[in-house]
Amino acid sequence: QTSQPEIPTMNYQRAQLTQPQIDYDDISYYTELKLLGKGAYGTASLVKHKQSSEQFVLKRVSLSGTTPDEIAEILKEAQNLKKLSHPNIIKYHAQFKDSKFFYLLMEYANYGDLENLVEKRMKNRITRDLVIDLTTQIAAGLAYCHANNVIHRDLKSANIFLNEENGKLTAKIGDFGCSKIIGCSQMGAQTICGTPVFMAPEMFLQKKLIYKYECDMWSMGIIFYHLCTGRLPFFANTMDQLVFKLERGSYVALTDGKFQQIFEQMIRKQPNQRITAEYLYQLMRQMK
Fold this sequence. Notes:
The structure is a single chain. This protein has seven helices and nine strands; from the N terminus they run βββαββααββββαααα. By secondary structure, the chain is α+β, with helices and mostly antiparallel strands. The chain has two domains: 27-107, 2-Layer Sandwich (Phosphorylase Kinase, domain 1); 114-287, Transferase(Phosphotransferase) domain 1 (Transferase(Phosphotransferase), domain 1, Orthogonal Bundle), CATH 1.10.510. The chain has a five-stranded antiparallel sheet, covered by helices on one side. Strands 6-9 form a two-stranded antiparallel sheet. The longest helix has 20 residues, at 128-147. Mean pLDDT is 83; it is low at 1-15 and 181-194.
């Protein structure tokens, strides 16, 4: 039984398939509608359940060309998703395999991801109200992860998925392949994982690599800046350039003074000085 965080103040039930009496654990039950993308371990497709007509994202991983460590990474994503149930986190539905592939069945978000949204609205900046709304939602999902001892470790705009319903956008954190569950007695994680321009400095600048939830808050800050400006604060083409920019700590400040204050609190170099996801959630709620 996972613990619930103090915020958001709603009750969340474990994600259930719409029609539990129907079988979902065989690839023959699905029709592929379109390929959504290819990753390091396989493909992700939009599929439709033939009997129930429900749409899902189906991750497919080849067993023949995949190492045991890579399979373990996929299983870790499944286990971490299974542990979490929150409206701002992509829902896990099922996992199964056949002789050739391992499959992970997940919720489909119909409006793409945050990176695409920012790119689509480059000429017309995302409104202040929408920045506040989406940041509030992402903070709520992240606070829930942290309350349940899960560090995401690869938070970035492309891993925040969006669902649109009746003109309302709902942000959902996804792609938990890099995530790690830590216990209260553990010092923290000690492996390099993530996308460099969104990664906290301690994940690749420290000689002795130990980090905890605070690394996600740095990434949250980069996402927030990206939402506000359409740019990344510390963009670089090489790791050497990125390290140089991070060590200097120079970037173009946000024009909104309140937003700049919040951003600064997320990207403090000392991890233990960064605000928590819970605190960010409360800050954004007060701005609504």
